[in-house]
Specification:
Elements lengths: L1 H73 L3 H26 L5 H29 L3 H58 L1 H35 L4 E4 L5 E4 L1 H7 L3 H4 L12 H13 L3 E8 L5 E12 L5 E10 L1 H27 L1 E6 L4 E4 L1 H7 L3 H4 L14 H12 L4 E8 L5 E12 L5 E10 L1 H35 L3 H85 L6 H13 L1 H33 L8 E3 L1 H11 L1 H4 L3 E6 L6 E3 L1 H17 L6 E9 L5 E8 L6 H4 L19 H11 L3 E7 L3 E9 L13 E4 L1
Parallel strand pairs: 12-14, 16-18
Antiparallel strand pairs: 1-2, 1-5, 3-4, 4-5, 6-7, 6-10, 8-9, 9-10, 11-13, 14-15, 15-17, 16-17
Length: 811
């Protein structure tokens, strides 16, 4: 009995132990599957997302590096181009770092094979991109563009294609791992239910652990899914997913913007309802699924709203965990913005080139590094300094040091620019042949991201002539000062003498006052002479040219006209001789060889036509000679070099007519000229300078005709006061916009294209009218035309003594 009891207890214990063992085994198996599922989910959350992030980072860096290279190629400014290069190299470093980190991840054989193919394509593309960069930095823009589009971009596209395949493979692996985790999860749950039936408490404990772990894992999965959705939603490129029926199942905001419709109307729609020829997209979906790989199409899309755009659309078929096709993932790259960017870059390039051309024409420009070594010099720099460009590039600016300035002068300059501030001043430099020249300089530091200078640009204006004139004025002032001192000494002596003789002292004081006024008058005349010298340089050049042309043309015109008279007498005699021969021919017997030969010769040369045409040709030749003489006379009248250079009385109508004849070639193809001259007296003026004003206004009026042939009207008249006359030049051109009307008299301001204007014409005209104590007024309406009116006093009065002031009025 005891044995049976013991056996029963042993059997129960054994059974209990077996049950406990089974429960523990089932629990162990469940825990094993839970751990396996946990590792799988960790693998999905940590490994797959990290690999996808690194691959995406490589993809974005590769694409941005190609765009950065294109921006460098399109940048005309060497400074801005140099500023873009560091970002280009930085993107290469980002790409390499991401690839190195990705290689440290546990990758499959297929993933490593794709990375090896990508490495081969990257090596080829990087070499091609470096070659394009070298060509761009060497200013071989056309060759760089050809190399970019023929070699670099195709290689870069192969790299991004392999990266796209790698991303697709990683997404597919992630989905397979998720499906495996899903199966393991359900197996573990069934085992947990079995254990729960056998042992409620133990199962409850296990269930609590499982639920908590499951909640954590699902939360991480949802968080990962939200991150993925956020990342796709924030990608600016249009992305959308189409199901197997080619209907849109999901899209990001970029696609909503591309389609121009809200999300509610896009879900469930096909591409055929969104833009023209959208059914071709459905056909491309089927081709991508049949091929089992990504396909790309270059599409010009017109939406239902009429918007047009240019895209490259990549379509990637997506498989589910069961191996069936789930749909197609579409990604569109907008080329419209890139094309517009090219247009804007081209426009900016033209504007910058125009500004550079204007700067090079006006100023001496050089660029130096932080050590003062020259890295760029324009043509005017080489022309003024006497050095060839190859002789100064790489040399220090000390090459031009003339020794005129003390060390403290340059120390202050370097302290200013090295601190990131602009320095202004006048510097005396030495040319290659040892001569000296003065420049008015502005040195501008270019700062890096840390606010430190990395190069300096110097803009100089040659002021050698001005400095020479200033030195001359200083010498004259010194001489005047010496004279004043001598007069002062004489005055002191005279005052001592005048203490004895009051009358003599009064006479000496009056004499001294007269001499002092004379000195002031001389000083004012010197200042006026300086101003006149600066303003008349251009007029003097034109006058010399006109005088030379008139002199050179007058001589041949004289002997051509004389020869025409002699030729007319010779022809008259020859025609008389021919008439005598005709009379003699009639006396020859008919049928003789001599008479037949004369008749044949008369018919061959058409003698009656020659008798009519020769006088006409001589008349036309004399008329042509007369027109040439008129042009020569107009040139002389325009320049007025045969007249006195002093102020003189002149007929403004004659000046207008001669100037109009000189500018006729510029005007005759653009506009008709209408003269509405009034009765005006002769004006005391400088005729050649006023002719220059007329020339500038007439040429500007002709060039303002934009479109059909216009009209230029010349009007003159006498002011109501009787002390002034006015001349008006009005055109029917395009007019001047109000925002720039107030700047047209500024030096170097022009709205004409590069090479067609210097911006000095109206500025010079204003200066000349101001010298005459007159006024220059302008009225303009856009689309209707512009009118300039010059008002001049009839009698010249020295400046400061006339109530008329030279002003430019803008209405």
């Amino acid at each position: 009995m005891t044995l049976r009891h013991g056996s029963g207890n042993g059997g129960l214990a054994t059974g209990f132990l077996v049950v406990i063992g089974l429960l523990l085994a089932l629990s162990g198996v469940g825990l094993f599957y839970l751990q396996s599922m946990d590792r799988t989910i960790d693998h999905i959350v940590d490994k797959d997302i990290e690999q996808t992030r690194l691959a995406t980072e490589m993809y974005i860096a590769a694409r941005e590096r190609a765009l950065q290279l294109h921006a460098i190629l399109q940048e005309p400014d060497p400074f801005e181009r140099d500023a873009l290069v560091p970002r280009f190299h930085e993107l290469a470093a980002i790409f390499r770092n991401a690839r190195a980190k990705l290689l440290q991840q546990p990758l499959s054989a297929e993933e490593r094979r794709l990375l090896e193919r990508q490495a081969a394509f990257t090596a080829e593309g990087s070499q091609a991109q470096d070659e394009v960069l070298d060509l761009a930095l060497a200013d071989h823009t056309a060759e760089a563009e050809r190399h970019l589009f023929k070699v670099a971009l195709p290689a870069q596209n192969r790299v991004t294609r392999e990266l796209r395949r790698l991303l697709d493979l990683q997404i597919r692996n992630g989905r397979e791992a998720a499906a495996q985790a899903h199966e393991q999860y359900f197996l573990a749950r069934r085992l947990t239910i079995v254990v729960a039936i056998s042992a409620v408490l133990l199962a409850g404990l296990i269930a609590t652990v499982v639920v908590r772990r499951q909640t954590s894992l699902l939360a991480r999965l949802r968080e990962s899914e939200d991150e993925a959705r956020t990342m796709l939603a924030n990608i600016p490129m249009p992305i959308w997913f189409k199901n197997t029926e080619s209907r849109i199942a999901w899209c990001n905001p970029g696609f909503e913007k591309m389609a121009g419709q809200p999300l509610a109307r896009l879900i469930g729609a096909g591409e055929g309802a969104l833009w023209e020829r959208g059914d071709e997209g459905d056909e491309e979906d089927r081709k991508a699924q049949q091929a089992g790989q990504t396909t790309s199409q270059d599409r010009h899309i017109t939406t239902a709203g009429g918007l047009k755009a240019h895209y490259i659309i990549a379509r990637t078929p997506i498989r589910g965990s069961d191996g069936d096709w789930k749909g197609v993932l579409c990604v569109a790259q907008d080329l419209t913005t890139l094309e517009r960017m090219y247009d804007l870059l081209e426009q900016a390039n033209q504007e910058l080139q125009a500004q550079k051309t204007a700067l090079d024409e006006h100023a001496i420009v050089s660029i130096a590094d932080i050590g003062g070594f020259i890295t760029y010099a324009n043509d005017k720099f080489c022309e003024i300094s006497g050095y060839a460009r190859a002789e100064v590039i790489g040399r220090n600016h000390n090459l031009l040091n003339s020794g005129t300035h003390p060390r403290a002068f340059f120390a202050d300059m370097w302290q200013t620019i090295s601190g990131g501030r602009v320095w202004h001043g006048e510097i005396c430099n030495r040319t290659k042949d040892g001569g000296l020249y003065w420049v008015d300089s502005s040195i501008v530091p270019f700062l890096d991201a840390a606010g430190k200078p990395y190069q300096y640009i110097s803009i100089h204006t040659d002021i050698t002539a001005r400095k020479a004139l200033e030195q001359s004025l200083q010498d004259i002032n010194a001489e005047l000062q010496k004279r004043v001192e001598e007069r002062t000494a004489a005055l002191s002596q005279a005052m001592r003498q005048l203490e004895a003789d009051i009358a003599e002292r009064a006479r000496s004081q009056a004499l001294l006052q007269q001499q002092y006024q004379e000195l002031e008058r001389l000083h004012r005349e010197l200042q006026d002479a300086q101003t006149q010298l600066l303003q008349s340089e251009k007029l003097a050049s034109i006058g010399q040219l006109a005088a030379g042309v008139a002199h050179e043309i007058n001589n041949p015109i004289g002997f051509v006209q004389s020869n025409l008279g002699t030729l007319e007498n010779y022809l008259r005699d020859l025609l008389g001789l021919i008439e005598r021969f005709e009379a003699a021919e009639a006396d020859l017997p008919a049928g003789t060889p001599a008479r037949a030969e004369l008749e044949a010769l008369r018919h061959r040369i058409d003698l009656p036509f020659l008798r009519e045409d020769i006088p006409s040709l001589l008349h036309e030749s004399r008329d042509g000679i007369g027109r040439v003489r008129k042009i020569v006379q107009d040139l002389r009248d325009f320049a007025r070099l045969d007249s006195s250079p002093d102020w003189q009385h002149a007929d403004l109508h004659r000046g207008l007519d001669s100037t109009l004849n000189i500018a006729q070639n510029e005007i005759k193809y653009r506009a008709d000229v209408v003269k509405e001259y009034g009765e005006i007296p002769e004006v005391e003026c400088l005729p050649s300078q006023l002719n220059q004003v007329f020339m500038n206004l007439l040429v500007n009026a002709a060039q303002a005709m934009d479109g059909p042939r216009g009209t230029i009207t010349l009007r003159t008249g006498t002011a109501a006061s009787g002390a002034e006359v006015w001349v008006e030049v009005a055109d029917t051109g395009k007019g001047i916009p109000e925002e720039i009307l107030g700047r047209i008299f500024d030096p170097f301001f022009t709205t004409k294209p590069v090479g067609q204007g210097t911006g000095l014409g109206l500025s010079l005209a204003y200066s000349i009218v101001q010298k005459h104590n007159g006024r220059l007024e302008v009225q303009s309406t856009v689309g209707r035309g512009t009118s300039f009116r010059i008002t001049l006093p009839i009698h010249h009065v020295a400046r400061g003594a006339s109530p008329i002031s030279g002003e430019a009025h803008v209405h």
